[in-house]
Specification:
The complex is a heterodimer of chains A (202) and B (470).
Chain A lengths: L7 E4 L1 E3 L7 H4 L19 H9 L16 E3 L12 H9 L3 E4 L4 H10 L3 E3 L2 H13 L5 E4 L4 E4 L2 E4 L4 H9 L4 H6 L2 H10 L2 H4 L2
Parallel strand pairs in A: 2-3, 3-4, 4-5
Antiparallel strand pairs in A: 1-6, 6-7, 7-8
Helix pairs in contact in A: 3-4
Chain B lengths: L4 H8 L1 E4 L5 E4 L2 E4 L5 H10 L9 E4 L8 H4 L6 H17 L2 E3 L9 H8 L7 E4 L13 E4 L2 H10 L1 E4 L3 E8 L8 H12 L7 E6 L1 H5 L2 H9 L8 E3 L4 H7 L8 H14 L9 E6 L6 E3 L7 E3 L12 H14 L14 E4 L1 H4 L2 H11 L9 E4 L4 H9 L2 H8 L2 E2 L20 E4 L15 E4 L2 H10 L12
Helix pairs in contact in B: 2-6, 7-9, 14-16, 14-17
Classes of the chains: A alpha/beta (202), B alpha/beta (470).
The complex binds iron/sulfur cluster (SF4).
The site of iron/sulfur cluster (SF4) has 13 residues of chain B, from helix 13.
C-alpha cells in the first residue's frame, strides 16, 4: 500500500463560528442511513442551514462565496457528540481538507486523522482573528502546513498547534492505520495466545 | 507501585509500538451494528481482506429497526433502512460473524446485547463503532467507541492504533436516597465537570455508591461517560459482576469458571493504584436530576432554578443563551412543572430490566396524562420477554403507555420513532442535543426512567420522590 503524505493544504476558508458544534449538527442522524459515504457532503449542516434560513440568515456551508473553501475554521469543542465518522466524511466530501479550531472532541479528532484531515488548534483570539479575516476575504487564499505547523493568511504566518503524534502520522503516511497494523499480524497472534479469555469464549 | 485496571489491561493488550508513537492494541471483543459497519465491510471487500478473528465479533441491528411488529416485517418500509438491514445480514454471513437478528430472539441495542449474552467480560478490550461503548466498562473492561475506518482495522487485524489515556478516579461517596438513581449520579458529575471534563481520560468509577449499585446501574454510569468527554469509563469487577455473568450464553462454562474469575479478579485496580487525577463527588444530598438545555452537562437538581445567562462569561455565555433560545424556557425559571408531550423509557442508558421494573413500580395504579404519549421500549428482545413474564407490559398498557419492540427507537430516531415539531420529550436516553430525537426543533429533557414515568403521569416535569415508596 502506498501512503499519501498530508502536508500543505491550500484554498479559501469557511468560517463556522460557535462552540460545541456537535456531529449531529455537522451531519444530522437521518442522513446516516447510507451504506456508503457518498452523498454525505451535500447534507453537511443541513439542519443548521435550515434553521438559519428560517431566520433569513445564510449558513457558511450554503453561502456561495465559501463553496470552494477547503479550510474550515471554528471555535471550542468542535465535533463533540456522537462518534460517527460520517461527520468528518461529510466535511471531506463537501471539500474540507483541514480544520482550525480552539479545541476538538477526541473521537472527532481521531476520525479526522484517519481520513487525512489535519485538525489544528489555535487560541480563542487567533480563531476570532482568522474567522474575521475569512469573512472579510471570502475567496482569499489560505495555506496550512503540517510540517511547518503554520497558517499563511494574507502575507502573515500564524503558528498552529498540532500534537507530535498525529503530525508524524500525516508526514510519514501512517495516518492510514491499517497498513501499519497488518504488518504485525504475527505479534497479534502471540498476544492473543497469552490472553486467558481467548479460551473462555468458546 | 500498584496499577489501575486501565493500565493493566492496556499493557497486556499492547501488541507493538507503532511508528506514529501510538500503541497497537489487541481488541478482545468487537461489537457491530448496522449503521457504522457496512462501509467497513465494504473496505474489506475492496481490499480482498478477511476478518481475522470472526468469532470475536458480534453484531445486531438496533438503530434503524422499527419498534412495532407490523413495521418490523420485511422488507422494511424505509428503503435505506432495509438496505442497511440486508447489508448487516449479508456481511455477517459472508464473513462468518455471529448476528443477533430478530429471528434469533436475541436482537437488541448492542450495548445491552453484549452483557446479556455474556460476551462482555472483565479484563477485555472492547470496541464498537458507537460512542456509548463504554457501557461495557461496567464489567471491568476497557471499552470505547471507534470510527468506521477503525471498525475496518479491527475486522482486518483485531487491533487498533491508540495512545494510552490518562486515568481519573471519580469516587462517589455517601448513599443514594430513594428516588435517586445511577442516571442522576451521571448527570450530576457531568454537570459539575462539563461535557469536556473527561477529554483525554479514562474514568474509574468507584466508591461506596458504585459498590452498592447493581450491574444495571453501573452500566448506566459507564454508558454516560462519553457525555462528560471520557471515551472510557469502567468499574472494577466484583462478586456482582461475576454473578451477573454466570450462566450467560457466552460466559465461561463450569470447567473454566474458576480460572476466569481468577483472571477477572487480577485485573481490578490494585489498592495502591495511582491515578493521574482523582475527584470526589458526595452523593448523600443528591436529588433527582433533569437537563434543561442542549447538552447533558446543562443539568440541575429538580428543585434548582435554571442559570442566569449573566452568571457566565464570554463564549460560555453564548452557549447558555443558545440553549435558552432553542429550548424556549424562561431564563432563571424552574424545570419543575414544565409540560411534556412525549415520555420515553428505553435506550442503552436505561432500557434494561431493572429500569423497566422501577418504571412499572411507579406507574402502577396511575394513568399517563391525556396530553402525553408514553413509549416503553425494552433494550432487547430478551428483556421484553423477561418483562412480560413479570407482567410489566400489562402494567404499562393499563396505564396507557405503548409497549414496543426492542431497539434504539427515540434515542436518536433513525427508525420511524420521532418527535414532531417543537414537542418536548421526557427521555431516559443520553443525549439532549438539538434535533436528536428526530425533529430539528424537538426538545429533549434527560432524566432517570423513574422521573420519566412521574412526568408522564402528571404531564409535566415533577419530582419522582412523591411516587417512590421507601
Ligand atoms: S440506544 Fe441510543 S445511544 Fe444507545 S446505541 Fe442506540 S442510538 Fe446509540
Amino acid at each position: 500500500m502506498n501512503m499519501p503524505i498530508v502536508d500543505v493544504v491550500k484554498g479559501s476558508g469557511v468560517p463556522v463560528r460557535g462552540n460545541d458544534i456537535d456531529t449531529d449538527r455537522i451531519i444530522p442522524a437521518r442522513f446516516l442511513k447510507c451504506v456508503t459515504f457518498e452523498g454525505l457532503g451535500e447534507n453537511a449542516f443541513a439542519d443548521d442551514i435550515k434553521g438559519l434560513e428560517l431566520q433569513g440568515k445564510v449558513h457558511p456551508f450554503q453561502n456561495p462565496v465559501y463553496r470552494k473553501g477547503t479550510i474550515l475554521v471554528s471555535n471550542q469543542n468542535f465535533g463533540c457528540g456522537s462518534s460517527r465518522e460520517h461527520a468528518p466524511q461529510a466535511l471531506k466530501r463537501w471539500g474540507i481538507r483541514a480544520i482550525i479550531a480552539e479545541s476538538y472532541s477526541e473521537i472527532f479528532f481521531g476520525n479526522c486523522v484517519a481520513l487525512g484531515i489535519p485538525c489544528y488548534k489555535v487560541s480563542h483570539a487567533v480563531a476570532d482573528k482568522i474567522l474575521a479575516w475569512i469573512e472579510a476575504n471570502p475567496s482569499g487564499e489560505l495555506s496550512t502546513s503540517t510540517s511547518a505547523k503554520t497558517l499563511k493568511m494574507g502575507g502573515e504566518s500564524i503558528e498552529l498547534t498540532l500534537a507530535d503524534s498525529p503530525r508524524g502520522q500525516f508526514l510519514d503516511g501512517s495516518w492510514h492505520a491499517r497498513a501499519a497494523l497488518m504488518a504485525n499480524a504475527v505479534k497479534v497472534d502471540s498476544i492473543a495466545a497469552k490472553l486467558p479469555y481467548m479460551q473462555f469464549l468458546k | 507501585m500498584g496499577k489501575n485496571l486501565y493500565q493493566k489491561v492496556f499493557e497486556s493488550h499492547t501488541v507493538a509500538k507503532l511508528a506514529s508513537g501510538q500503541s497497537q492494541l489487541f481488541i478482545g471483543l468487537h461489537l457491530c451494528h448496522e449503521v457504522t459497519s457496512p462501509q467497513a465491510f465494504a473496505m474489506l471487500r475492496e481490499e480482498g481482506i478477511k476478518v481475522k478473528f470472526p468469532e470475536r465479533t458480534f453484531a445486531t441491528v438496533d438503530h434503524i429497526i422499527p419498534t412495532t411488529l407490523p413495521d418490523r416485517s420485511r422488507p422494511l418500509k424505509d428503503a435505506i433502512s432495509e438496505e442497511m438491514f440486508l447489508h448487516i445480514e449479508k456481511n455477517t454471513r459472508d464473513f462468518g460473524v455471529r448476528f443477533f437478528g430478530p429471528d434469533t430472539g436475541e436482537q437488541g441495542v448492542i450495548h445491552i446485547v453484549g452483557p446479556e449474552e455474556g460476551v462482555t467480560q472483565p479484563g477485555m478490550t472492547i470496541a464498537c463503532g458507537d460512542s456509548h461503548t463504554a457501557t461495557h466498562g461496567a464489567f471491568g473492561a476497557i471499552a470505547f467507541g471507534i470510527g468506521t475506518s477503525q471498525v475496518a482495522d479491527v475486522l482486518a487485524t483485531q487491533t487498533l492504533a491508540m495512545s494510552p489515556l490518562k486515568t481519573r478516579r471519580i469516587l462517589f461517596t455517601g448513599k443514594l436516597k430513594p428516588g435517586v438513581y445511577s442516571k442522576d449520579v451521571s448527570l450530576a458529575y457531568i454537570a459539575k465537570l462539563g461535557v469536556n471534563g473527561g477529554v483525554g481520560y479514562a474514568y474509574e468509577f468507584a466508591g461506596p455508591v458504585v459498590d452498592a449499585m447493581d450491574m444495571e446501574g453501573r452500566m448506566t454510569l459507564c454508558n454516560m461517560a462519553i457525555e462528560g468527554g471520557a471515551r472510557v469509563g469502567y468499574c472494577n469487577p466484583d462478586q456482582k459482576t461475576f454473578d451477573f455473568l454466570k450462566g450467560k450464553p457466552f460466559a465461561p462454562k463450569a470447567d473454566r469458571w474458576n480460572e476466569a474469575v481468577a483472571y477477572w479478579k487480577s485485573v481490578a485496580s490494585d489498592p495502591d493504584a495511582k491515578f493521574d487525577d482523582e475527584i470526589i463527588i458526595d452523593c448523600d444530598h443528591l436529588e433527582p436530576m433533569v437537563t434543561w438545555g442542549i447538552t447533558p452537562a446543562q443539568a440541575l437538581q429538580i428543585n434548582e432554578n435554571m442559570p442566569k445567562i449573566s452568571k457566565f462569561e464570554g463564549s460560555e455565555q453564548k452557549v447558555i443563551a443558545e440553549a435558552y433560545e432553542y429550548m424556549g424556557w424562561q431564563e432563571g425559571g424552574k424545570m419543575l412543572g414544565t409540560p411534556i408531550d412525549i415520555a420515553f423509557v428505553g435506550s442503552c442508558t436505561n432500557g434494561r430490566l431493572s429500569d423497566l421494573q422501577e418504571a412499572a413500580k411507579i406507574i402502577k395504579g396511575h394513568k399517563v396524562a391525556d396530553s402525553v404519549k408514553m413509549w416503553v421500549v425494552p433494550g432487547s428482545m430478551k428483556i421484553k420477554i423477561e418483562a412480560e413474564a413479570l407482567g410489566l407490559d400489562k402494567i404499562f398498557k393499563e396505564a396507557g403507555a405503548e409497549w414496543r419492540e426492542a431497539g434504539c427507537s427515540l434515542c436518536l430516531a433513525m427508525n420511524p420513532d420521532k418527535l414532531k415539531g417543537r414537542e418536548v420529550s421526557a427521555s431516559s436516553s443520553n443525549r439532549n442535543f438539538k434535533g436528536r430525537q428526530g425533529s430539528p426543533t424537538g426538545r429533549t429533557i434527560l432524566m432517570s426512567p423513574a422521573m420519566v414515568v412521574a412526568a408522564a403521569i402528571e404531564g409535566k416535569v415533577t419530582d419522582v420522590r412523591k411516587y417512590v415508596k421507601e
